[in-house]
Predict the structure.
Amino acid sequence: MAVIMDGKKISQDIKSQIKSETIRLKDETGIVPGLAVILVGDDPASKIYVKRKENSCKEVGFLSREFRLPHDSEEEPVIRIIHELNHDKNIHGILVQLPLPKHLDPVSIIEKIDPQKDVDGLHPWNIGRLFTGNPYHIACTPGGIMEIIDRYGIEIEGKEAVIIGRSSLVGKPLALLLLNRHATITICHTRTRHLEEIARRAEILIADVGRPEMIRKDMVKDGAVVIDVGINRLADGRLVGDVAYAEVAERASYITPVPGGVGLMTVAMLLVNTLKAASFHIPR
Ligand SMILES: NC(=O)c1ccc[n+]([C@@H]2O[C@H](COP(=O)([O-])OP(=O)(O)OC[C@H]3O[C@@H](n4cnc5c(N)ncnc54)[C@H](OP(=O)(O)O)[C@@H]3O)[C@@H](O)[C@H]2O)c1
């Protein structure tokens, strides 16, 4: 049976460390880390995610501000808020909640964020730094996955890693992170042929697909480390990942549960990035 990788415990450990560092930062410099979240539209899942981020900020002593815009907002008002926040000394991290309504281009909007305040790690400057092996802000979900892997002492160098899903939010940055740590990477997507065969080669298998329980036991190598990024709500209300958890856990050496795995790490890494951005302003 696989070891369950406990994202809940790791994210709590990270949060308590951030809480004490935030107290120290405030005592020594007067700086209180501040995070601003911009939400366009009223997607119910996005609202929940934004609320969670706000609550987590409060939990660790950060300042948190939320900006809500109607679903039919044009790009201009979103960019105006970003410009104001770029110059706001009390705000160190800016996040535009994704997905944006279809008529807005996320790339064009995210590009307007000051890269050092881009705590989601999605600005081309941050992606470029990751590409050159010298990252500044790392995208939160891939960063959280690396943290889980490291905290369980899993060797990455030389390992065969297969990522199913090529999203800019998860699959692509994760591939670079693993590559920078000397894994051999394969990225799969909807046009990949022989997906099952490729998945079975993986010593580290990451599913970021958005298809409930798509990864079955017969797609997993004995002793593989299985990371499930998917968060899928079934018709009966249950939350499941992209991995058929019970059967895959019989074959894997390590596995992340859903819920309680990668999802909680994403928010924890957002706090890590915001604290880092705030610490940049310490007078030296
Ligand atoms: N834990 C977290 O904090 C977190 C963060 C982000 C996302 N998620 C969850 O992760 C899942 C994916 O989200 P996302 O936004 O990263 O991805 P996305 O943009 O929806 O992309 C999904 C990827 O999976 C690929 N794919 C879909 N069906 C496939 C199939 N049958 N075979 C092979 N590849 C397939 C797609 O291929 P193509 O490129 O060819 O279309 C695409 O690259 C969702 O369940 C989401 O809720 C969780």
Q: What stands out?
A: The mean pLDDT is 97. The longest strand covers residues 34-40. The chain has ten helices and eleven strands. Residues 141, 164-167, 169-171, 188-192, 195, 208-211, 229-232, 262-263, 266 surround NAP (CB under 6 Å).
